């Protein structure tokens, strides 16, 4: 159940006319009162022998009477409007149930505490099965102001209890950093225009992608223009841009003017100052990425995120999650068509996990952002799909760690978002990885060579060897080991290096995890004889040392 408080000025005339009208898309059905401050307020929806407009006037006049009696002493903000919406899967509630819910909401908000006969005047209007609107005036009947300290939090707490009491879908408590939900008007407008999602949601995704892809402010605005987004800057007295608003082509109001959304209303991190802060950490001056395969660099950077989540400070960890969100935003544009939809769903879901009350240190994740930008600019330069598969493989583990990180900090909505992301990522990974693994398996080496690799596995990682050898990806793993040997690497050394990168305990498929790691290592320049001897000595020394224990976070 979602309550949303909206404050207004003036009288309630227009609000009452809207609530009892047809709606912007004729969506209002049988509008009528279900509850009021006195139990017998005029009901324009249930007065068949009187003109509806006459009853509406009587109703808003009675609502506004305490405000009108104060005259010039009336407060500037006088209207309290709170739509309360049930989830689509919730049962249809009766008028009596909605009436009781309305009473609980106004009591929790301090508008009309239980038993207070001098409280504010209010009405609850129902014009659809799944929601009501509560309209109130912010002057009590005794002329005083209502005590509504922290009414937004109080109403949300009461809504969580109502969900329990009525057996409704239980929403996760939030921390105030979630992106603004589309309004009912925006939803109906999207349906009328034949859109699957609202303009607000389309703009949010396009602005996030532009922010993830851009290195400078000029490039950010150029990318938005290329995707058809109209940008309107808010200029200060000096002429400097202080903020920006965004609009989609064809999204106009009843006057034919573009409907603009401020960046901060799309999401808390999409205001111009926040965008500039993020872009400042991706400009090329502070550091440069060494030339190489950007898929490998992005994978290595993503593989280090669990370390940041478990060992670094919270600000650095939050910055890493923000960078991972940006990576998912762009990767859906580089994916094969079959997996693109699932990757986009994963990016949209993970967006909620990229923000919390913890201020993000974006500078800690420069390499991930820049390597993903390089991939986005030329996704086909490196790889046959293996790059995306290996990156998603480590992203699955990283998102599982993100879920655990948010859970330990009681970020309920972010935890749920990470959990939903895992579902979409797993589906996308299966679609992308299976063809690549099948291609690798077709190049698997001779049985004799595979037996040698199996013996090396049993020596190097006995606790996982049986599971790896029984995995369907074993043939692909043997193939990448053989290719590494053909490129001049020592198979034992490469295997030990792959195992030392990170534990396999939290891998859903240790065989696949090793396949991608060895593929990455095998594509590096092969070391000379002296370096191979040194690496062999290093492996011999470190193979007997116990590996550090990692949190036991399993993929779902």
Overview of the structural elements:
Residues 72-168 form the MobA/VirD2-like nuclease domain. Residues 542-556 have low confidence and may be disordered. Strands 1, 2, 3, 4, 5 and 6 form a 6-stranded antiparallel beta sheet that branches. Strands 7-8-9 form a 3-stranded antiparallel beta sheet. The longest helix has 30 residues, at 412-441. The protein has 556 residues and is of the alpha+beta class. It has 22 helices and 9 strands.
Low-confidence stretches: 542-556
What is the overall number of helices? 22
Mean pLDDT: 88
Distance between the termini: 27 Å
Shape: elongated
Portion of residues in beta strands equals 5-15%
Radius of gyration equals 29 Å
Number of DSSP strand runs: 9
Largest sheet: 6 strands, antiparallel
Helix content percent band: 40-55%
Structural class: alpha+beta
């Amino acid at each position: 159940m979602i309550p949303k408080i909206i404050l207004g000025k003036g009288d309630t005339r227009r609000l009452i006319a809207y609530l009892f009208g047809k709606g912007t898309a004729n969506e209002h059905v049988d509008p009528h009162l279900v509850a009021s401050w006195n139990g017998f307020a005029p009901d324009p929806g249930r007065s068949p022998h009187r003109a509806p407009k006459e009853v509406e006037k009587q109703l808003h006049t009675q609502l506004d009477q305490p405000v009108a009696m104060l005259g010039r002493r009336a407060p500037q903000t006088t209207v309290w409007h709170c739509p309360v919406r049930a989830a689509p899967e919730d049962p249809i509630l009766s008028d009596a149930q909605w009436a009781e819910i309305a009473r609980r909401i106004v009591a929790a908000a301090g508008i009309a505490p239980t038993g207070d006969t001098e409280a504010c005047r209010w009405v609850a209007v129902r014009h659809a099965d799944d929601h009501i609107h509560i309209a109130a005036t912010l002057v009590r009947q005794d002329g005083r102001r209502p005590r509504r300290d922290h009414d937004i939090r109080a109403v949300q707490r009461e809504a969580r209890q109502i969900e329990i009491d009525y057996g409704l879908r239980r929403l996760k408590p939030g921390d105030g950093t979630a992106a603004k939900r589309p309004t009912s008007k925006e939803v109906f407008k999207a349906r009328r225009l034949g859109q699957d999602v609202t303009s607000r949601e389309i703009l949010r995704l396009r602005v996030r992608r532009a922010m993830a892809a851009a290195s400078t402010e000029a490039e950010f605005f150029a990318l938005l223009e290329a995707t058809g987004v109209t940008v309107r800057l808010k200029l200060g007295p000096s002429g400097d841009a202080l903020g920006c608003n965004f609009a989609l082509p064809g999204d106009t109001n009843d006057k034919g003017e573009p409907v603009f959304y401020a960046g901060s209303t799309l999401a808390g991190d999409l205001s111009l100052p926040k965008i500039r802060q993020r872009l400042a950490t991706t400009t090329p001056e502070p550091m440069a990425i060494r030339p190489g395969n950007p898929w490998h660099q992005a994978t290595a950077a993503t593989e280090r995120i669990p370390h940041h989540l478990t060992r670094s400070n919270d600000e650095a960890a939050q910055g890493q999650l923000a960078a991972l969100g940006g990576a998912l935003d762009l990767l859906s544009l580089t994916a094969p068509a079959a997996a693109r939809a699932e990757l986009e769903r994963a990016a949209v879901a993970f967006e909620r996990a990229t923000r919390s009350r913890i201020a993000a240190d974006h500078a800690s994740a420069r390499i991930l952002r820049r390597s993903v930008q390089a991939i986005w600019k030329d996704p086909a330069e490196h790889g046959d799909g293996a790059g995306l598969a290996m990156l998603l493989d480590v992203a699955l583990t990283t998102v599982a760690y993100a879920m655990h990180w948010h859970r330990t900090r009681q970020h309920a909505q972010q935890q749920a978002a990470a959990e939903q992301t895992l579902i979409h990522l797993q589906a996308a990974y299966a679609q992308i990885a299976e063809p690549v693994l099948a291609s690798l398996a077709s190049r698997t080496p001779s049985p004799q060579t595979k037996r040698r690799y199996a013996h090396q596995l049993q020596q190097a990682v006995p606790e996982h060897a049986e599971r790896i050898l029984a995995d369907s990806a074993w043939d692909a793993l043997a193939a990448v080991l053989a290719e590494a040997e053909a490129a001049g690497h020592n198979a034992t050394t490469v295997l030990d290096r792959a195992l030392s990168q990170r534990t396999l305990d939290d891998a859903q498929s240790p065989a696949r995890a090793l396949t991608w790691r060895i593929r990455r290592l095998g594509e590096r320049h092969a070391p000379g004889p002296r370096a191979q001897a040194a690496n062999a000595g290093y492996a011999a020394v470190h193979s007997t040392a116990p590996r550090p224990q990692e949190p036991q976070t399993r993929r779902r």
